[in-house]
Specification:
Layout lengths: L1 H24 L15 E3 L4 E2 L6 H16 L3 E2 L7 E17 L5 E16 L4 E17 L8 H22 L2
Parallel strand pairs: 1-3, 1-4, 2-4
Antiparallel strand pairs: 4-5, 5-6
């Protein structure tokens, strides 16, 4: 009985040790990033607003700047002190009613933002990465009830979600 327990214990330790070494060694894969290693400082000008909705470009720009600071991979600087510029345009902003009450008043909807973005090397004026985020950011929200949110709250939430996605793409693109 004791030898069976010992064999089981040794087998478990051997498997655990092998698994630990395998996990610690890793595969050495480094994901592709559009940012060169010499780029440490980024400048983010206010995005252009190609929609009729006021303040949306400021919401996107502010969220992106906050996310760059929180991520910590890059420093946010003025253009003269930066190696790259991350700029873009808000190309679409739509609010669509989705949920109605019995009297056909709108009580919920969907908010969608689409942007076009590019990362440019400042010294060479070369585009390092650009993308149209055609997969719009949408969120369902309610105007009444326990889950009620204002349009500005939902807009800021969607802007933050987009900013996280952008920072992930420029720091850890696959």
């Amino acid at each position: 009985m004791k030898t069976k327990i010992r064999k089981t214990t040794y087998s478990f330790l051997l498997i655990f040790s092998f698994f630990s070494i395998f996990c610690l060694a890793g595969c050495g894969y480094k994901p592709f990033s559009p940012i060169r290693e010499d780029i440490k400082n980024i400048y983010i000008p206010t995005f252009k607003n190609l929609t009729y909705y006021p303040n949306i470009s400021a919401a996107i720009t502010d969220a992106l700047r906050r996310e760059i600071i929180l991520d910590g991979t890059f420093n946010l600087r003025e253009e003269k002190d930066s190696q790259a510029m991350l700029s873009g345009e808000v190309t679409r902003f739509t609010i669509s009613p989705l949920i109605y009450d019995k009297e056909e008043n709108i009580i919920g909807g969907s908010l969608t933002i689409e942007i076009r973005i590019r990362l440019v090397s400042i010294p060479e004026k070369k585009i390092l990465w650009k993308e149209e985020l055609k997969e719009s950011e949408s969120v369902n929200y309610f105007l009444a009830g326990n889950l009620a949110k204002t349009e500005d709250e939902v807009t800021n939430w969607v802007a933050e979600k987009m900013a996280r996605r952008i920072v992930e793409r420029i720091t850890e693109s696959w």
